[in-house]
Amino acid sequence: MKNASFRPLRTALLLAALLAAGAASAARAQEAAPGAGGQPATPDSAGRLPINFENVELPVFIKFISKVTGRNFVFSEKVAGPVTVVSPSAVTAEEAFAVFQSVLAVRGLTMIDDGVVTRIVPLKEARASGSRMAAAPAPAAYTTRLIRLEHVNAADLVPVLGPLVSREGSLVAYAATNTLIATDTGANLEALTEVVRSLDIPSHEESAEVIRLEHADATTLADQIREVLTTSQLPRLRLEKEKTPASALRIPFKIVPDKRTNSLIVIAGESDRRKIRELVAGLDTPLEPGEERINVYYAKYADAQALVDVVSGMLTGRRRIGAKQAEAKGVVGTGAALAEPVSITADPATNAVIVNASARDYATIRSLLESLDIERAQVFVEAIVAEVSVDRSKSLGFEFQTGGDIGNGVGIGRASLASLNAALGNPASLAGLILAATSDRTIQIPDGQGGFTEVPAQVALFQALEQDKDIEVLSAPTILTLDNEEAKIVVGENVPFVTSRGVDIANVENVFTTVQRQDVGIKLTITPQVSEGDVVRLEINEEVSAVVPSEILDESQVGPTTTVRSAQTTVSVADGRTAVIGGLISDSLTRRASKIPFLGDIPLLGRLFRTDSDAGSKVNLIVFLTPHIIRNASDLGHVTGTQAERFRRGLSQREGLLPAPAFDKRLPAGPSAEGDKDMPGDRFPEWPETGDHAR
């Protein structure tokens, strides 16, 4: 009972002692850090506060941190002991809270966040899930110090200085301000601070240096050096990533390539700059002959862009770039037979293929280019287009007219009036054998305009006509083209065709016509392909068109009428052989009879009452094609000489009075030693001064 009666008294005395100690500590804290005893010190313009405490009680420091951070803390009487915090400069609220965490860790305390409040309990109690255990007495002389660095990364010094911190002390890096937070005894902190100041010296300060390159490409070398140095520092970066926020990580060097001067701008510490100089010295060396990555292949016969398109198809996973970058396309890819990625670009101006690849890969690509870049054969095609049109017509018959007055009118009787009308209007328009008879008496026929026209009262007409019309169109176009290349030749006229007619709404008398011009004549399109055994495969499209007069349509209104003869086919012909395509196009026969019923059917006598006409027409189109394979300059010279001789003979026969042009037909036995620079037979015609043009 005695002990029970004194228990409230002991409790009251203990609380009084704690309050007195707290008041003394608060006074000391007020002297050490203004604002720590009552309200927090006023922050400066940057939001920083002084945080210097010397031997203040832990509850007082907790109250200071509560006011700075706005947190609510709950702790028991076991949370006690003197605290000393020294910071040469003001800190932010986050830095102050980090210092507070270090102070608690040194004293074996930790925080448990319950939402509204944060409980401060011994670490062992927190690990025991609420079982209350007495905490070991904390050292009385532990101090927390903030050491801000200027030249060295704070995270780099933590593993270096860790062995210097006592077992109960702690050392962490705050990457946001490059600051070390150290908690230890005063003697250890002084020694630790001296070591840090010795390491954080200007000799390790990053500086800029320009390294000029003589052989290597600045951009490529910069990428390679970055990769090497980053790989070598991966362990340090992983350790730094575990202890610092990802946003605060940084690479301790920077390399910027300058393309204009082909130089490297290096910003790093002396150690890293020395490594970079060593790497540059080993890599910036001249390549051995044949090891250059940029190679130019000048195409001799093939088109450079066509070669790029073919080679790009051999590259697996190719990626196209720039369809029209400086009028050139590029291809980048990696193939199964290539060791590294390559890029291929065509330069149309020089007909060259630019290859960016290693020496080994370029050897593979060059072999492929040389296999494709070969002289292709040419094909000279002679075409003869023959069109024969035959028209036959016969006309035989009688036509008559008689008329007379009937009271106040006129009565007329006629039979087969086609030629009779023309004879009455214009007798000279009739053709053939014409016999006509008329009477002296005339009759008047109203002309529909208020007047009258006098015509013979009796007229009889006999006509016999036979017409033959033969049309022959003969043309011989020739054309020379490369193997597998389409060639087209057009010989004719560009004729306008009416496509639409219209009137102006404001002025209906203003009629406008839209026309479209089209080629009318001979069109020959050929695509040859030379096959094995000197056989030429020909894709042929032949068209022969002409403008013909129309008796029905008005050409000024609807445009001209054309006839079209065309043939489209594919044939295989041996070198120098002739193939015939085409044949009979049309064969028509038209019979016409004009007669008086019943009377025209009377034998013999019926001829007086009828007119018969027959018309027949045949059109034939035949196309002859003869291909000649030209493999070298000698073959070309032979063909040129042959065509020149034909031209000379034709001109001599047709003109007669003019001397024909003389062609130099001297052909060498074979290709010249100059690599066929002078094409045989490729001479311009020269007109001789005398009439003797035979060679």
Architecture overview:
This protein is of the alpha+beta class. It has 5 domains: 52-199, 3-Layer(bab) Sandwich (Phage tail protein beta-alpha-beta fold), CATH 3.55.50.30; 207-231 and 250-283, 2-Layer Sandwich (Ribosomal Protein S8, Chain: A, domain 1), CATH 3.30.1370.120; 294-322 and 339-374, Ribosomal Protein S8, Chain: A, domain 1 (2-Layer Sandwich); 394-469, no CATH class; 470-502 and 513-548 and 561-600 and 608-654, no CATH class. Helices cover 26% and strands 39% of the residues. The strands form 7 sheets. Strands 17, 18, 19, 22, 23, 28 and 29 form a 7-stranded antiparallel beta sheet that branches. A hairpin with a 7-residue loop joins strand 24 and strand 25. Helix 2 packs antiparallel against helix 3. The longest helix is centred in the N-terminal third of the chain and has 31 residues, at 2-32. It is elongated. The model is unreliable at 1-40, 129-140, 243-249, 317-336, 428-435 and 657-695 (pLDDT under 50).
Key phrases:
disordered N terminus, 14 helices, 5 domains, Phage tail protein beta-alpha-beta fold, 29 strands, alpha+beta, Ribosomal Protein S8, Chain: A, domain 1
